[in-house]
């Protein structure tokens, strides 16, 4: 592991910033592999250690135990595993008909729906009704799906569900 550098900004108790630098592997690749779990632990003003997610996390998953913090994962797939666009960009429509939807609640089953469910159940309905744009609500990770995404846990992480 690389050096840990601490920058103190004066007498404020909670104003220290720490940085961990991990040098790359000898071949230039990242030391943290795709889907590695990382954890951020902070000490609060009372001296307690708290698990936190980075506000810039790009992928987080539900914890195995309800009530625990979400788990941050490294999203860095190999180049051959990254998404490759196969369709061209659609032409701009003359008018805009927007269908607003939430992927997680697009099913009548007692479960959190997946993107596959959305494609199978909702997309045909959108096309049949003549909509030409889709607005997906709350695609970022959030702890409580019944809130329609108002309790966001990671603004930059699309839902792992």
**Mean of pLDDT:** 80
Structural class given helices, strands, pairing? mainly beta
Helix content estimate: under 10%
Output the strand order for the largest sheet.
3-7-6
Distance between the termini: 32 Å
Please indicate the percent range of residues in DSSP E strands (runs of 2 or more).
Answer: 25-35%
Describe the protein's architecture and organization:
- This is 1,4-alpha-glucan-branching enzyme-like.
- One of its GO terms (molecular function) is 1,4-alpha-glucan branching enzyme activity.
- 9% of the residues lie in helices and 27% in strands.
- With 161 residues, it is mainly beta.
- The strands form five sheets. A three-stranded antiparallel beta sheet has the order 3-7-6, with no helix packed on it. A two-stranded antiparallel sheet has the order 1-2.
- The longest helix has 14 residues, at 115-128.
Topology (elements, then pairings):
Blueprint: E1 4-8, E2 16-20, E3 37-38, E4 40-43, E5 49-52, E6 60-61, E7 71-73, E8 98-101, H1 115-128, E9 133-136, E10 140-142, E11 152-158
Parallel strand pairs: 8-9
Antiparallel strand pairs: 1-2, 3-7, 4-5, 6-7, 10-11
């Amino acid at each position: 592991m690389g050096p840990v550098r601490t920058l103190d900004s004066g007498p404020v108790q909670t104003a220290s910033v720490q940085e961990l630098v991990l040098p790359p592997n000898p071949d230039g690749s990242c030391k943290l592999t795709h889907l590695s779990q990382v954890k951020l632990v902070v000490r609060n003003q009372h001296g307690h250690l708290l698990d936190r997610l980075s506000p810039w996390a790009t992928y987080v998953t539900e914890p195995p135990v309800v009530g625990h913090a979400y788990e941050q994962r490294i999203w860095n797939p190999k180049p051959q595993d990254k998404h490759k666009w196969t369709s061209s960009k659609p032409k701009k429509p003359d008018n805009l008909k927007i269908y607003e939807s939430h992927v997680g609640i697009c099913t009548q089953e007692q479960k959190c729906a997946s993107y596959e469910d959305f494609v199978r159940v909702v997309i045909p309905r959108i096309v049949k009704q003549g909509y030409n744009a889709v607005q997906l609500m709350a695609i970022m990770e959030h702890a409580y799906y019944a809130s329609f995404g108002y309790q966001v846990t990671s603004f930059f992480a699309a839902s792992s569900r």
